[in-house]
Write a structure and sequence with these properties.
Blueprint: H1 17-53
């Protein structure tokens, strides 16, 4: 027996629509990731400045994105 899961396939849609939808999703995801990376940079800088203002030692953690799995930007 074959079970039919998920949405029914709409055969009225053009065949390249799925490709276009996926492309748009990837673009949104990349844009969101870029915004998050920029926010990390800003917050790390703010953290460094606040630590200096409070005479706290620097964090012993390496900056995000510099480890073996980081993007290295």
């Amino acid at each position: 027996t074959t079970s039919k899961r998920g949405r029914k396939r709409d055969d009225n849609l053009p065949p390249n629509r799925a490709r276009d939808v996926q492309r748009a999703f990837r673009a949104r995801r990349a844009s969101h990731l870029e915004a998050l990376e920029q926010r990390v940079i800003i917050l790390e800088d703010e953290n460094t400045r606040l630590r200096a203002a409070l005479d706290l030692p620097p964090s012993d953690r390496p900056p995000l994105g510099t480890g073996p799995t980081g993007r290295g930007k």
